[in-house]
Amino acid sequence: IMADMETTTPAGQPIVSREKTAPFLIRTFVKVGSFHRLSLFEENTLPTTDEQQIYTWKDATLREVLTTLRNAAPQIPEFRHPLARYSFRAIYADAANRGRFAQKELGIVYSRDILGEPGTVDSPAARLLNDTDGESREQTEREKEERTLDELRFVPGDYLCVS
């Protein structure tokens, strides 16, 4: 059973070999306070001033996508706010509706999910003191239930909106 765990996600999806698989581009549009209007995508007037281009794999979680976004755009203070809530939505061409754009909610990640518990001036956060190099630690329930982009049916070519 241990060998099986290392090759599939908690939901039974195959884990991507990131050393052997190239990541794909996600055109991500970030707006504080709300999502961009779907009509912007339908009219092909993409809000490129709010665009961040990131590369990731289909087995990435929303938490990992947010970490990648934060690293890609350190100049945006909203990405660093400790109380922020990030909502994710996919915008895609809907084949069932003659290729018109549609949207679907993907999930929410809170800043604290990435930051973890804080340290103090005198000592780092407890999680940073654990030496976990090479050893597998138990996943928390929250980590186990977090689904990958593939499991959320996000595919290369979809746009990602973050509010």
Automatic annotation (TrEMBL):
Biased composition annotated in UniProt, kind: Basic and acidic residues: 134-147
Region (Disordered): 121-147
Any one annotated GO CC term: nucleus
TM helices/strands, residue ranges: none
Any one Pfam family match given in the protein's UniProt record, by short name: SAP18
Record-stated family: Belongs to the SAP18 family.
Name of the protein this chain belongs to: Histone deacetylase complex subunit SAP18
